[in-house]
Amino acid sequence: MRLLFVAQEAGETPSGVFTILKELCKNWTAKDQIFLLANKSYRTEEEIKRKFTDIQKCKVLLLPFRIPFEVSLEINKLCKSIYFKYFLKILLWFMRLIYAPIVILILAIWLKVKRIDGILSHNGGWPGGELNRWIIIAGRLARIKNNYLIIHNIPALRKRWYQVPWSFVRDRIVSLSCKKIITVSKSCKLSLETNTHFNKDLVVIYNGIETEVTSSPSKILHENFALLQKNNILKIGFVGELSQRKGIHILLKAMALVNRKCEVIIAGSGDEEYKKELLALSKKCKHKVYFLDYVNNMSLVYPYLDIVVLPSLNFESFGMTIIEAMKYKKPVICSDFGGMKEVLEHNITGLVVLANNVFLLKKAIELLINNEEMRISMGLAGRQRLESNFNSARMVGHYEGLFF
To answer: N or C: which end of the chain has fewer CB within 10 A?
Structure first.
């Protein structure tokens, strides 16, 4: 079969969707030809091809033109006037109405020419990416039966009454165009059922990663990692995108209250304004806080962390950081938002605390800091849970089963 995997993203930080796409392409057992289609500004062509260079069955393709989403991002960077931004937002909305049918038709013809047999459109959230929605409709026009939409994140809520009629039409068209809608947790499924107008039953396929540890900590070359090796002080780590919804400011506020000596490692890149806020908070913290920025291979970081914290406040349907930490036998503390509490077993593989609560997060961190035996047992239990429930072979098997 000739399969098409689709993703639309922006920014330089690889997301959980990107990780899952690589796991699928790398571990796909069936003898299929896989095409990976991404929007034009999906990082650089060289970067994405480098990520998939060792996967011979996967051919990377980028759209030759920009979509309205990318245009709006560029305008927001260049434009300072709020009123002009609103004007351009309206202009872009009308642009989509004209642009969408043309692109959908082009994509439908392209699908026919490429003789695509199946589509897995990996959408970050809902409504998510235009390309993800358009390819699903194009797949219906091209009469591709195995046409699947995968929603990886909790949907954005409809905020205004006048958006409801449009969202109803959009949701119904997309759900009628695809064979099934898949999501990554029961929590995300419930949120989609509550906040969208899909007229299809949703299927849950949990994310998974390879369980084999291939990178050796001794191979670390990046100069920033020297700090991870220089002492035996306990290290509390966050790994992921630097954005408000990830709740890293809650972690730093909690750490300011922790008395036992330790260090904080924040590995990731993202919103520069938010990073300035985090830097200001780090100066008020009694512990040393290190920012590693974006690390291409996070497997070089996890071995040196003693506790991994994911204090997300919103849009966290699964929590890839949790299973990555489990891979390296690290205990995890996460908030009770979204699908994270489905992945983590409270008091067994880590601790689940109330979201946006500095005091409770501080108590959970101190509990693990002061109990080495608990940290070790939770790390081992997490590794076993990863192998049983969130391994890539299990995930790929479920996705391959959609085509047979």
So the answer is: C
